[in-house]
Structure formats: structure tokens, C-alpha cells
Amino acid sequence: MKLTSKSLLFFTALMTSMSAFALKNDTNQPINIESNNQSLDMENQTVTFTDNVVITQGSILIKADKVVITRPPENSNKKETVDAYGRPVTFHQLLDDGKPVDGKANKVHYDLGTEFLTLTGNAELKQLDSKITGQLITYDVKKQQLKASGSSKSRVKTVLIPAQLNSKKK
């Protein structure tokens, strides 16, 4: 696929700054978690939600088969990690400009302390009809750096729809 440098630069900036442009009040909203089952392991500091897990926070919607939240030891100056599993795990969020961002993967790992997101297995990030797919997609929220990797069986694929990327809202 041949891209102009302007389109590639715009797409890269768009995909790597999703979190920075997410609805500003999403992270201040209550986190709601629903599932068919929940278990708490005090010794290992984990809470596990299984079967039809639905997490909402503001415009954020995550659906998974299983979600494990791990608290770090006290006084470790670390934050929680979240691991979500599914076939696939899906998430949806609105950006401040009103455009939706959707993603999916077989496993999603998020480290709240380092603000590092990892999508593993049939990973995809999509905004309207523009998308990037690969076996592994990582996103460093602080540095706003996105990387996508393929596998021996599939390469990273990017589809750009310039008219949609440049429009204000759909």
C-alpha cells in the first residue's frame, strides 16, 4: 500500500494519541463491573471476574470472558494491573471530537502505574473504517507511542479512510 507522508503522519498521530483525546471526564467517572461470577484472593491481592464481564466507565465499554485485577503490595509505590481475556475482549470509547475508537484482542493487559497497554492475539484498533491489525499492539500512553507486530503467519495491516479521518464527527 502506498501512502503519502501526510496521511501516514496523520494516522500515526491519530492512533498514538487516542488516550490523550479520550473524553476528559471518563477517568473521573465511577467504574462499574458486572459479571456472572466474582472471586477474591486476599493472599495474592487479586479480584477475578468471570463469565460475561462488562466494565463501564463514562463512555468506556469493555466486554470480556474473564478480567483479573491485581493490587500490588502495600508501600510498593506501584499501581494495579488489569488482565482481560476473551474471544475477543472488546472495548469502545468516544474521543472528545465525538469519534468512536474500538479495539479487540484475545488478551488485553493494562498496567495503571506505567500506563502501558498491550493487546495480544488478533489485535485490532479501529476508528470508524480506518484500522490497524496485528498479532501484538502496544501503546505507551505517557509517551503516546504505538507499535504493532505481526507473526510468521500474518503481517500488520493498516487501512486508512482519509475522508473519515479528516471529518469532524460522524
TrEMBL record:
Annotated signal peptide: 1-22
Top-rank lineage group of the source organism: Bacteria
Primary location recorded for the protein, binned into one broad class: periplasm
Protein name from the UniProt record: Lipopolysaccharide export system protein LptA
Cited function: Involved in the assembly of lipopolysaccharide (LPS). Required for the translocation of LPS from the inner membrane to the outer membrane. May form a bridge between the inner membrane and the outer membrane, via interactions with LptC and LptD, thereby facilitating LPS transfer across the periplasm.
The organism of origin for this protein: Avibacterium volantium (Pasteurella volantium)
Sequence ranges assigned to domain Organic solvent tolerance-like N-terminal in this UniProt record: 32-144
Keyword Transport: yes
Recorded GO CC terms: cell outer membrane; outer membrane-bounded periplasmic space
Gene behind this protein: lptA
Upper classification of the organism: Bacteria, Pseudomonadati, Pseudomonadota, Gammaproteobacteria, Pasteurellales
